[in-house]
Amino acid sequence: MDFTHITKTELLSRAGWTATLVARLLGDPDQRKKVLGRAGFASLYAIARVEAAEAGVEFATAQAAIAKRRMAAEKAVASKTAKLMAAIQSMPITVRRFSLSSVKQEAVDSYNMRSRGDSFASITDGPAFLDRITVNYIRHELTEYDVALWEVAGKTGIARAVAEIRRRVYSAIAQAYPALSDECARQKGARA
Questions:
Q1: Mean pLDDT taken over the chain
Q2: Who has the most CB within 10 Å: 10, 33, 86, 123?
Q3: 118 falls within a domain
Q4: H or E stretch including 141?
Q5: Domain count of the chain?
Q6: Contact indicator for 161, 85 with CB cutoff of 8 Å
Q7: Cα separation of 180 and 138, whole Å?
Q8: Helices then strands, each counted (H, E), the chain
Q9: Is residue 147 part of a domain?
Q10: Model's pTM, two decimal places?
Q11: How crowded is the C-beta side of 131, counted as CA atoms within 13 Å?
């Protein structure tokens, strides 16, 4: 095994190296070696040359530029995320209110329509199951939850945004239907 050379793959795994820096600071490899089972040749760089490049001013300057770009990118992400979160905080969350018994019946009917014969719900089912499908029904049918999720899709900070939308929607459902507040808290906790 050769301990005087390093492959390009190993070089790129070292801190601070990019393909552009390899080409700019090291140029052509010192050796090319055929590797069994691969179509191409491995590019080998002398470790002494790599270490000399790492100790050089050009490498340090490149690292500073990379760090500056990374900080700018992180700042932009943080700014976009903060803007998205502010928009979510100001988003009105409304829950259409009906009698709880009619909402539960609608939830049962909706569940049965979607089940395609796999399972059926009944208004006489256990309270935990009925509360779960009722909260799900309210979330999807009596709020703008799905629209809110669609509006944040693909935006920077989506994971935090979705969590905050869910939190606000569950809180609004619990406020509109106090009898379902335990189920809202359970679902909120399960999705946190």
A1: 92
A2: 10
A3: yes
A4: helix 127-141
A5: 2
A6: yes
A7: 10
A8: 9, 3
A9: yes
A10: 0.64
A11: 17
